[in-house]
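Progress report, Aim 2. The chain analyzed during this reporting quarter is listed below.
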Amino acid sequence: MNLPALRSHNAALVLDLLRTAGASGISRLELAERTGLTPQAVSKITARLRADGLATEAGRRASTGGKPRTVLRLVPEAGHAVGLHLDRDELTVVLCDLTGAVVAVRRAPLDLGAGADAVVEGAAGEVSALLGGVAPLGVGVALPGPLDHTLGVLHRVTGFPEWDGFALRDALAGRLGLPVVVDKDTNAAALGVAVGTGAPSGSGTGTGFGSGAGFAGGGSFAYLHLGTGLGAGLVIGGVVHRGARTGAGEFGHQVIQLDGPLCECGNRGCIEVLCLDAVGRGAVAEAARVLGAGAANLVGLLDIDLVLLGGRTVAAHEEVFVRGVGAVLEERARREGGGAPVPVRVAPGGARGVAEGAAQLMLAPLFGRGEG
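Predicted structure tokens for the chain:
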């Protein structure tokens, strides 16, 4: 038995319950009941967490018998992580505490085609300016794919073939002197929803979200990101699905019109080029229907519970996209007679959703989340 790994896993279970309990806290007895650990094991873990400054007392709570129970809570400011979103023309960097709350943010123009050295130097400068002396756990970086999440190496990013094979993780880690994790923008945003406290709840369309512990306990959804490009982040059974080569989610380059316009990827009739062409012509409702066709393909293929929409293009026309994609899914449900259609909503987080999700690339593993 790997005792250090087991201890780490058990500590993560306890930390996650402290996180989801919020400021009101949770007692050691409740921690033991919910984790299945013995009270003695919980006492040892919480003592270590308190010694490390990660947990503290949050008062006392009346019990059914005996003396009141001491409750503990997470100390959000005990650690921080950086989330860095590199879009094709813009950079967003956030500093988040252990709960994922944003405590600082910076934005700057970016030219992803300016070359690796210039992009790395510019990104590192913005991260350093944001930190202001804070020593974070590390930096999560999100950008358009395809890429190798495990190695932190980019592949042929659509429109930017010069990035093919560039070891972005190692380059940024060397420049910043910090641990770095790299993932696709869509995966990062999906992870942020899956582990966050602003997880989707209920049914129907709209933008309402309830509090809770995300989708980590199960459930599946697709996050569709339409901005300067189009991609998808997939959460299946509560974890981000990256695939055997971490290349899952290249949603934008499914061909749905064989004789369609030429896409920058080299194919014709990709859903990405069809959506962006329609938006460029001002035909936003048409773009929404095209996106809906792609969403319907995902629903039929994966039987997911929810479709979330994000990205700057969606943000500029939220109602049109929710209505348009929803209408396609409603028509699909009517044809198949399988009950209520899969709901469509705008993803939480807004313009910072990808950057906040990127920070979770560093934070989620502390709480036993985000693996898969």
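Residues 3-21 form the longest helix (19 residues). Residues 207 and 280 are 25 Å apart (CA to CA). These observations will guide the mutagenesis work planned for the next reporting period.
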